[in-house]
Amino acid sequence: MSNLKFVVVDDAIFMRTLLKRMIEEEEGYTVVGEAGDGHEAIHQAQLKKPDVMTLDITMPDMDGIAAIKEILKVSPHTKIIMVSAMGQQAMVIEAIKLGARDFVVKPFDKSRVFAAIQNVISS
């Protein structure tokens, strides 16, 4: 599937930039929005209706876990890939139960990021 729209959500600008660059290296993948917390993620989902959203678990104000249900309400076709730090396995499981489709762990392994994208777009 080509021409996929992404929204990248992470409270760390460095991580958003890193993930954005990685995604946009792929032909037909475009990052159409970014957000730094769960509230902004919901707004971006509603505004941009992305095909895929990478969503950090730990963020200020509203974390990724709290945002999942609302994101899927405003953009039900968006596939969510959780972004977690090492040791957040319980939170990742909770996110999957709430509707996230896959996860990647920081620091990013490029092949794992693309495997997660392929997994969610083919499901």
Automatic annotation (TrEMBL):
Q: Which InterPro entries match?
A: CheY-like_superfamily, Sig_transdc_resp-reg_receiver, ST_Response_Regulator
Pfam families the UniProt entry points to: Response_reg
Stretches assigned to coiled coil: none
Q: Which residues carry this modification: 4-aspartylphosphate?
A: 56
Domain Response regulatory: from-to ranges = 5-121
Name the UniProt key words of this record, in alphabetical order.
Phosphoprotein
An example GO biological process term is: phosphorelay signal transduction system
What PROSITE patterns does this protein's entry cite?
Answer: RESPONSE_REGULATORY
According to its UniProt entry, the function of this protein is described as: May play the central regulatory role in sporulation. It may be an element of the effector pathway responsible for the activation of sporulation genes in response to nutritional stress. Spo0A may act in concert with spo0H (a sigma factor) to control the expression of some genes that are critical to the sporulation process.
Q: Which PANTHER family does this UniProt record tie to the protein?
A: TWO-COMPONENT RESPONSE REGULATOR, TWO-COMPONENT RESPONSE REGULATOR ARR22
- Which protein are we looking at? Stage 0 sporulation protein A homolog
Q: What organism is the protein native to?
A: Anaerobacterium chartisolvens
State the organism's lineage: Bacteria, Bacillati, Bacillota, Clostridia, Eubacteriales
